[in-house]
Amino acid sequence: MTQELRTYQSEALSQLRQGIRQGSMAQLLMAPTGSGKTTIASAIKQGACAKGKKAFFIVDSLELVDQAVKRFMDDGMWVGVIQGDHIMTNYAAPVQVATIQTLGRRWRQMPDSIRPDLLIIDEAHVLHQAHEDIISWCKDNGVPVIGLSATPFRKGLGKIFDRLVVTITTADLMDDGYLCRAKCYAPNIPNLKGVKTNSSGDWDADAVAEVMGENGLMGDVVEQWLKLAEGRQTIVFAANVAHSRALCDRFQQVGIAAAHVDGYETDKEGRTEKINAFRRGDIQVLCNVAVLTKGFDAPETACVVLARPTKSLMLHIQMIGRGLRTANEKSDCIIIDHAGNCLRNGLPDSRLPQELHDGKSTRNLDRKEREIKEPVEKPCVSCGFVSTKHVCPSCGFKPEVRQDVEVVDGDLYEITKDNAPKEKWGTEELASLYAELKGYARAKGMKDGWAFHQCREYAGRAPRNTNQIAPSAPSQKTLSIIRHLNIKNAKRRAAA
């Protein structure tokens, strides 16, 4: 049965039809996660079939074939599949679901009589040479092409598609209740200075993994999850396979049902079973690399952990989008950003570029160069909640401003600076700090010299006559100072 269209979905159809009438033969529809791209595609195909036209729907992975076929068949369409020796191969069907890999191999030998009158491309920001060859043929032969993407920010898309259609934003979908609200926390920000980049301009995965794989940082991922999101179905995005497995082990060590999956596994049945177990709730935390960024719908996901820094706006939006779908008894999604991605690329409801990259401009479609006159997001130094407000909407903390430096007298540190705090330490305060550091060191089996060096690094100096200062149990503030120093030293080692 055909699903009734939402207002913005009907508007998208109208704009696409108008574009075709005006001669735009290759249009790209920007449709956020949860907006119903397949619903829109189904409505387009039904319209084509009603006119006796043949429509192709191209996907780029096997997992998306069955999902699309089921949807189109549920809407009453006759569907064939172009993928290997698929059981539903039938070129007579007016609707064809094809993988680009198979279609690309068969395209040149395919008779014009069974080629499409309309072409729809799913995940159109991921284009292979086969896509471009087929689109070129369609343009030359007057066949309309419609691309679908939540993240049409790839460089050069404006050379392939001649029109971008935008009818709804993620913020609009949240306001209308089609997506859930997100609460973003940035408990720490890794120092990526000097980390090498790859050919695509993003950070090299293995180099990032070395930074993110520091013992203290991995422990912090679990610690912050227990603090902010314990009990929530959670997806963790890691830097590489070794990092993902290590994070999975950390969660398991504290008794959390966790599993690892990646896009390089040969045991695809085992991977599918883990994903299904996550959907059932048997697995609570699913750590992954290169597998859950697209084509993965698990509305029950109520927390996303970003442990993989990226410069890519597309990848960032794909990752955080995994937790934005609505579900029963789910009021919001918590995003715990250990990678600085939300500050670098924006929050889930931040404005996004609404133009296609022309392939000529040198400007990058990243957060810094979008020329959007909006307040800058920053994390609260007390709880890590990311917002544009001076007073934290989450915990109510109001930082005291001293010479343009925000100083907190509570139990956390300034996470946006790597320099020592600008506190003035009196004799008693300094002795108290050292005493608590000394108490921590002895409890952990470390020498008193550790406390001396940590005190001097944080406060700029250590007290005199340290042998006469008795150790004492560390306060929450001192524990936070220790955590800050551990992370700072981890960054220093990674940079080295």
Overview of the structural elements:
The chain has 496 residues and is of the alpha/beta class. The protein folds into three domains: 162 residues, Rossmann fold (3-Layer(aba) Sandwich), CATH 3.40.50; 203 residues, P-loop containing nucleotide triphosphate hydrolases (Rossmann fold); 69 residues, no CATH class. Helices cover 37% and strands 14% of the residues. The chain is built from 16 helices and 17 strands. Strands 3-4-2-5-6-1-7 form a seven-stranded parallel β-sheet, sandwiched between helices. Helix 9 packs across helix 10 and helix 14 crosses helix 15. The radius of gyration is 26 Å and the shape is elongated. About 7% of the residues have low confidence.
Strand order of the largest sheet: 3-4-2-5-6-1-7
CATH H-level superfamily title of the largest domain: P-loop containing nucleotide triphosphate hydrolases
Instruction: Report the sheet with the most strands, covering strand number, pairing sense and barrel closure.
Output: 7 strands, parallel
Q: How large is the share of residues in beta strands?
A: 5-15%
Low-confidence stretches: 362-373, 402-423
What CATH architecture of the largest domain do you see?
A: 3-Layer(aba) Sandwich
How many β-strand stretches? 17
- Kindly provide the name of the CATH class of the largest domain: Alpha Beta
Based on secondary structure, the structural category is: alpha/beta
How many whole angstroms does the radius of gyration measure? 26 Å
CATH topology tier name of the largest domain:
Rossmann fold
How many domains? The number is 3
